[in-house]
Amino acid sequence: MELGRDSDTGGQVKYVVELARALGTMPGVYRVDLLTRQVSAPDVDWSYAEPTEMLSPRTKETSMQELGESSGAYIIRIPFGPKDKYIPKELLWPHIPEFVDHALSHIRQMSKVLGEQIGGGQPVWPVAIHGHYADAGDSAALLSGVLNVPMLFTGHSLGRDKLEQLLKQGRQSREEINTTYKIMRRIEAEELSLDASEIVITSTRQEIEEQWRLYDGFDPVLERKLRARIKRGVSCHGRFMPRMVVIPPGMEFHHIVPHGGDMDGDVERNEENPTSPDPPIWSEIMHFFSNPRKPMILALARPDPKKNITTLVKAFGECRPLRELANLTLIMGNRDSIDEMSGTNASVLLSVLKLIDKYDLYGQVAYPKHHKQCEVPDIYRLAAKTKGVFINPAFIEPFGLTLIEAAAHGLPVVATKNGGPVDIHRVLDNGLLVDPHDQQSIADALLKLVSDKQLWARCRHNGLKNIHLFSWPEHCKTYLSRIAMCKPRQPQWQRSDVEFENPERNSPGDSLRDIQDLSLNLKLSLDGEKSEGAGNGTLDNSLDIDDSVDRKSKLENAVLKLSKGATGGVEKASLMEKADQNVVGSGFPAMRMRKYIFVIAVDCDSVSDTSKIIRTIMEAAGKENPVGFILSTSLSISEVHSLLISGSISPLDFDAFICNSGSDVYYPISSSSEEGPALPFVVDLDYQSHIEYRWGGEGLRKTLVRWATSVNEKKGQTVAEDESRSTAHCYAFKVKDFELVPPIKELRKLMRIQALRCHVVYCQNSTTLNVIPVLASRAQALRYLYIRWGMELSNVIVFAGECGDTDYEGLLGGVHKTVILKGIGNNALKLHSNRSYPLEHVLSFDSPNILQAEGCCNEDVRVSLRKLGVIKE
Ligand SMILES: O=c1ccn([C@@H]2O[C@H](COP(=O)(O)OP(=O)(O)O[C@H]3O[C@H](CO)[C@@H](O)[C@H](O)[C@H]3O)[C@@H](O)[C@H]2O)c(=O)[nH]1
Ligand SMILES: O=P(O)(O)OC[C@H]1O[C@](O)(CO)[C@@H](O)[C@@H]1O
């Protein structure tokens, strides 16, 4: 770990690595995979390019022999974004879909490997997926949706709070902040994480009460109300809230020199080897001081403006008695040259240097250029040895790992009263809290602690006495018990395979009793005791139980046939049949065998344009390649049927149909005349069970109808429910005038405020609004086809227009190739006003996977296919 190297290498890195390592050694946990980006750049360590790295356990008890072949904790580095280049977290957003696709492929591969090793040949699926920080939250939401496993989320630092703090400081406008930090994109990712997570882990209560409450999708009062309703067994009307759980992080204690009985004031010494030489970092710090024997005030933080180091230097510089009594050590990451640091970090450092000069603090302040990770404990020990004090004066500190590190080394603390330190102080009672904006109170608190020997000894003693409360094994126990309470989710087809093979194992708890793994952050198996917990937890979490599709019927792997109702819409014809093994049951064969799959996702102005483009693309594909076709559209399946008939295209020319903006997947079947008016398609019920998660059903529909009424009252008859086009997982509304309806971002906000989790899409030239499950989309349906049928995503070519429905941008990113057909697309959509951030924060325009075709005639398409190497000549 290169902690403090830049703004990406802070406490979160340490937290996540230590958590993964600790989880990997927990009884019952089989495997933990920590997924991160692979970087092979000259300016970063070579190990960042290693695809896999084992995190060896810290505890001696866990011998390698005890572990299974692939068990333990691993860092898995996934390549995505430009090769050979380090990208700061703010610029990663356009590359997230590519990460998700590669991560899926790793998880799929791993589940097979583990299946061979410990699963009796059945794939071993992750038990849960945990996103850390907004970008991983965004990814985990998509992955949990495709894999159909529970998601957990930890924010570490939250965008809305950061935005408020930056606005308060008044140095940048909202637009400037967004340009620098891509903060609106990040906030949307955090909102999506709330939509999709079953559990949100926080380090403190303050994070819930004061930070998460700033989000549309979380309201502590509504959360309590919903929880009470669940306990009483009363309906929540389709509303869902993630469960917030406070679990403070832990510490790794292996490198801490035992303090023996020396808790009451005498400085510690190395008990194991009293004659060992002083660590080199001590002299590197001491050479700054004219009187190295004075107590040392220590600050250790990334040189980030929010850490407020400049106020500390001012407080020190302006307080004569403090300067006389103590020295100040500032550990602010590592640097070779200030000119090579990032803009904000460099400006903090320059300000500090100017202040040292202004107050003439030479000989009293140390600011070493380098320190190694392994030297950090020595730095705390040095401060404790001089009877010094640790200070964290951050404007706001979400938790503050340095505070528990200092306590573990017997160093009393002065800390900001904003954020996590309040909770830490309640537990440890090892120092004083201050207002970080009040320079005088910072100086007073420091002076008090360095001058009052009894207070200093009491704080040291208290910290050492209670630090065991911040332990990773304790953290992991609570964490795992929470996961055991989640309602088990798993791909339906996998569950049915297991159950058909082994009819003894039919209760939901049983599948948890099998060894399972938990990917991205952990993989674990649950023992009998925990499985019972899982049963009880289902009650606790019954918010998510609203499983409206009858489980039994889903398990039957049935084929649902459709027939045209009197209205011309599609009705379910009550025909649940045993699986037609050739169609759905045994793995839809065609997609896996295709060399390429062309996904036609052009959102045209008119139906005739669509069928014309379908024919052009099919002709351009030629016959030489075994190409499969998928139509991806906002249309319902009966509209698709009419479109195909009007264009004289056979449904059998397609492998699949992604309909209703991604809320339904169908496969074509040959219709026989005996079946009367049945449409020649079967619906994929497994897909429905995947996207069912948090679907608000009737409660959501009623809220939408009320919303439509209120729009109509204000603007005249503008929005009306379109029952004929609505399906079980898509509520369709007709829109008369798109200028009069609110943009997507407002409608989404309105739904989130009411704890309704869904995805809203304006489509068909803005004449229609489709409201679908939050984990459904046209892009997600493609990932599902990969997981379900093994359709290779890198061999998929998506054809899209220049613009389209409001889910358009989701179609472009990822490992598949995209051909954008110039001049095509419905143009009435307010695509750009649907987001609160520019398209560049979502899409990478220079991606080699995206191509522009000059037009949409046969030759234009063929030129693009040639460029992609799909066709020769
Ligand atoms: O020059 C430095 C600066 C920091 N560190 C280490 O880096 C970590 C910094 O963690 P923390 O003080 O918690 O701050 P952040 O880097 O800002 O971490 C974020 O993530 C942490 C874990 O969730 C939270 O505790 C913080 O509040 C949150 O701001 C600590 O282990 C430090 O020892 C160094 O080794 N060298
Ligand atoms: O300033 P931001 O964007 O809120 O980010 C802070 C986050 O970045 C990191 O420094 C990266 O490790 C984390 O410690 C912290 O969670």
UniProtKB/TrEMBL annotation:
User: Which CDD domains does this UniProt record tie to the protein?
Assistant: HAD_SPS
- List, for all copies, the residue spans of the domain called Sucrose synthase first GT-B: 7-252
Question: Does the keyword Glycosyltransferase feature in the UniProt annotation?
Answer: yes
Q: Which Pfam families match?
A: Glycos_transf_1, GT-B_Sucrose_synth, S6PP
Q: Which GO terms describe its molecular function?
A: sucrose-phosphate synthase activity
- Residues in Glycosyl transferase family domain copies: 291-464
Q: Does the keyword Glycosyltransferase apply?
A: yes
Q: Which UniProt keywords are given for this protein, alphabetically ordered? A: Glycosyltransferase, Transferase
User: Catalyses which reaction?
Assistant: beta-D-fructose 6-phosphate + UDP-alpha-D-glucose = sucrose 6(F)-phosphate + UDP + H(+)
The residue ranges of the Sucrose phosphatase-like domain are 597-811
Q: In which pathway does it act?
A: Glycan biosynthesis; sucrose biosynthesis; sucrose from D-fructose 6-phosphate and UDP-alpha-D-glucose: step 1/2
User: Which EC number applies?
Assistant: 2.4.1.14
Instruction: Spell out the InterPro entries in the cross-references.
Output: Glyco_trans_1 (IPR001296), SPP-like_dom (IPR006380), SPS (IPR044161), SPS_C (IPR035659), SPS_pln (IPR012819), Sucrose_synth_GT-B1 (IPR000368)
Enumerate the transmembrane spans: none
* A Gene Ontology biological process term: sucrose biosynthetic process
Q: How does it assemble?
A: Homodimer or homotetramer.
Described by its record, this protein's role is as follows: Plays a role in photosynthetic sucrose synthesis by catalyzing the rate-limiting step of sucrose biosynthesis from UDP-glucose and fructose- 6-phosphate. Involved in the regulation of carbon partitioning in the leaves of plants. May regulate the synthesis of sucrose and therefore play a major role as a limiting factor in the export of photoassimilates out of the leaf. Plays a role for sucrose availability that is essential for plant growth and fiber elongation.
Name the UniProt record assigns to this protein: Sucrose-phosphate synthase
Organism equals Durio zibethinus
Q: Which gene encodes it?
A: LOC111299386
